Amino acid sequence: MPQPILVPLTLADAASLFDFETENRAFFEATINARPASYYSPEGVAEAIAEACTDADGDLGYQFLLKEEDGRIVARANLSAVKRAHFQSAVLGYRVAQAACGKGYASEAVRQVLGIAFGELGLARIEADVRIDNAASARVLLRNGFVQFGHSRRSFEMKGVWYDRLHFECHAPCAAT
């Protein structure tokens, strides 16, 4: 069975990304804060992609799509808050289509984005945060070599409820000396 492949987000993905986001909107918004309503239109998605491309051109952040062989988007992954001087770090985020949950897509997206981050992007450290009640996401990170380094209390608010977050980090493999 062919592995899904992680590809950079481009304007050519606008229609399929619009479908992915609208089909999974309620699922995503059950656990993360909602995007602005203006995002959920073909124009809103195209504008967000253009902004993502500008961020990538400026080395500020990178967005990727995990696609099946037939081109179907099953997950997204991004590297945001890229810090170069003295840090060489970024923050990882990801989301998986509801119908694709539990099939290893999150782990595969994280595995592939780490390869890009530590390879062609030359980053040295990736951070990720997980709500304390999201054990599946924490397992994805641990499975991909992340280590928990912190726990912040009442640090994420959604719909008037405060949640704890767990903080994880992963470092680029060191070359043997």
Automatic annotation (TrEMBL):
GO cellular component: cytoplasm
Domain of life: Bacteria
Gene3D superfamilies attached to this UniProt entry: 3.40.630.30
Keywords (A to Z) from UniProt: Acyltransferase, Transferase
Keyword Glycosyltransferase among record annotations: no
N-acetyltransferase domain location: 4-169
GO function term, MF aspect, one: protein-N-terminal-alanine acetyltransferase activity
Pfam family, one: Acetyltransf_3
Family: Belongs to the acetyltransferase family. RimJ subfamily.
Protein known as: GNAT family N-acetyltransferase
The species this protein was found in: Massilia litorea
